[in-house]
Amino acid sequence: MTKYYDIIKAPIITERTTQLIESHNKYTFKVDRKANKVEIKKAIEIIFNVKVLSVNTINVLPKFKRMGKYEGYKNAYKKAVVKLAEGQKIDAFTV
Known about the structure:
The protein is α+β, with helices and mostly antiparallel strands. The protein is about 30% helix and about 35% strand.
């Protein structure tokens, strides 16, 4: 059971993702970089007890940042946009 909690890292809550929730019933998560769509779908369905229709994934590349004389890269991660069935919702996104 802990395997599913290792796949889903954190929800991504921004203005754009809240618009996706309201208009298309799509939720956005930060997920493990090695996870595939099938594993992500199964993890979301078991953890939140919802029906997932589709999963889209995006590999976010590391972004170059500079802070004074120090420079480096932000971490790369994988983002998953999950579409839920009509009438389903995830309470973790409500503030």
